[in-house]
Amino acid sequence: MQEQRIQQHFIDSADLHYQWAQPLSAPVAEAMQALLACVTSGGKVLLCGNGASGALAQYAAALLVGGLERERPELPALALGADAATLTAAARRGEFADAFAAQVRALGQAGDVLLVLSSNGNATNVVRAAQAAHEREMSVVALTGRGGGELGRLLRDTDVHICVPHERLMRIHEAHQLVLHCLCGGLDDQLLGESESSE
Length: 199
What we know:
- The chain contains 7 helices and 5 strands; from the N terminus they run αβαβααβαβαβα.
- The protein is α/β, with parallel strands linked by helices.
- It has a 5-stranded parallel sheet with strand order 2-1-3-4-5, with helices on both faces.
- The longest helix is centred in the N-terminal third of the chain and has 39 residues, at 2-40.
């Protein structure tokens, strides 16, 4: 019985990834172009999220700096939740809901990109981070699910919204990780030329 449940997780995940491939490919390609324009013009990528989304933000920052599968120069990226001292100091000055926004205001500049991960788009601290990015004339790339919530509603035409059309948290996180792999692999291809493994 347990093995059947495990197998069903694999099947459900694979089926949903197959269904999402076409509708999500266009916004993922648009997000990749936004990141490419940022890093090739001297900008940096700031990333944030809560809980598992925060872990994915740190993972994405590691891929941007260190590369996915190919050797290339490091790209400037920073996960805002990775430094506990800075995060809690920023929260202490006001409230936790402003912890990411304070770092965006301190570090962000016009031409940078804020990559936000949120399973439902309603966490106040990620919404405020996006608002702070707009104040700094930064673009926002938002990876969400469950309709995108408040974060999805505040995005501008210059931003990119990749919204996974699902309600289950684990499926949203699985899709977000795949999107991050697509973004980082696509950046490598754009910067280095397509590899045989990307075909």
